[in-house]
Amino acid sequence: MKILVADYIYTPTGFVENQAIAFTETIQAIDSIEVLQKKYPEAEIIQTEANSVIYPGFINTHVHLEFSANKTSLKYGSFMPWLDSVIEYRDELMGECNNEVMQKECDVMLHSGITTFGAISSFGNELEVCEKTPQRVVFFNELIGSNAMYADMLYGDFMERVKASQSCEESSRITPAVAIHSPYSVHPIILQKAVNVAKQNKLPLSAHFLESQAEREWLEKGTGELKGFFEKFFNTSTPVTNIEEFMFAFDTYPTHFTHCVQATKEELDYLADKGHSIAHCPRSNRYLGCGRLNIEDLNLPCSVATDGLSSNDSLSIFDELRAALMLHHQAPMQELANRLIRSVTSDAADILGLNCGRITEGKLADFAIVTLKEKPKREEEIALWTILHTKEVSNVYIEGIKYV
Ligand code: BEZ
Ligand code: FE2
């Protein structure tokens, strides 16, 4: 048993002062240090630095590790030139992205307090790194392929990867999962088969959806910039599905949809009605010229996530939260800061179906300890000061073990 003491603890009922947490792999009790010491006299006491706040470990629900080598290769500013540059540099970037590069980025995430991440994997190359990294990893095996001719082969390869990730479940902190690349890049037949795999095995399910205006136009009218892309690279000029058909394919299983920047109010309401959620990637959306997700209108659970280094400049969750504060410039500051912290803790845990993300009895002992520069003058500003001032967290615990 260990007892962690801090000036503040972020709990589901708000920030509490002068309390402590008793934990093994899971949280056993939250109370004053005096009460906990009496209850657990043998426990090791860990005193955090002055002005520290214990948060549940942060959760980044959507990242592509396999693009970690990108710095200046991919074209930012607008979605289609970016997608063209992905096709042009994909092999080169994947080649440069070895285990060492990916592990380094897992460490960046760890030092920003991320104790769980959702890794979108198109080839399974990240599996070894995700087995070794201390974090919990929801390993999203991604299905891609719009050409019916190759559909069976691509589906077969996808299933092999699903099985490989399932075989790591016991010996690591990996949860196997399924990702659908997007409506424009996955044939509806294999899409439905993959959704069924997720449903039958109760695996988390995710899909990129309505990221760009080009995607919307292609799915609605079969025109626009994606038409030229498909003619050039895939020798086809008609989309394989439309917005409704794609959305309906997920009707019976809650799915984590990434981006949705170009979704209408009706589409967002439909997703909400079916129990789905959104991964909001503010820097990725800005860098690819996709626009701003109207988070103020959402009535469904929403996480904030970094996406990969293919559309970002770092995998730090604090860099992402600061960007979100700037992108949503019209939102009341304190409320937004509190909502953002929730979006990377309890909301993200609920979305991924994990027993972490909250400091309450029985939850996994995953903690990120943030040390503020001085005592906050007003308690209602702790979330904001945390986001604005934290470059790296002071300590990280996962399942009760200290990693930072
Ligand atoms: C496809 O298979 O249709 C596809 C793959 C990558 C990007 C876009 C489309
Ligand atoms: Fe993504």
Task: Give a short overview.
This protein has 404 residues and is α/β, with parallel strands linked by helices.
Could you characterize what this model shows?
The structure is a single chain. With 404 residues, the chain is of the alpha/beta class. It has 2 domains: 2-56 and 358-402, Urease, subunit C, domain 1 (Roll); 58-352, Metal-dependent hydrolases (TIM Barrel, Alpha-Beta Barrel), CATH 3.20.20.140. The chain is built from 15 helices and 16 strands. The protein has helices at 33-39, 79-96, 99-111, 127-132, 151-166, 188-201, 213-221, 225-234, 243-248, 265-273, 282-287, 317-327, 333-343, 346-352, 382-389, and strands at residues 2-11, 14-23, 27-31, 44-47, 52-56, 58-63, 114-121, 136-143, 174-180, 205-209, 256-259, 277-280, 302-304, 367-371, 395-398, 401-402. The strands form 2 sheets. Strands 1, 2, 3, 4, 5, 14, 15 and 16 form an 8-stranded mixed β-sheet that branches. Strand 8, helix 5 (151-166) and strand 9 (174-180) form a beta-alpha-beta unit. The longest helix is centred in the N-terminal third of the chain and has 18 residues, at 79-96. The radius of gyration is 21 Å and the shape is globular. 50% of the residues are buried. The mean pLDDT is 98. Bound molecules: benzoic acid and fe (ii) ion. Residues 62, 64, 120, 208, 258, 307 line the site of fe (ii) ion.
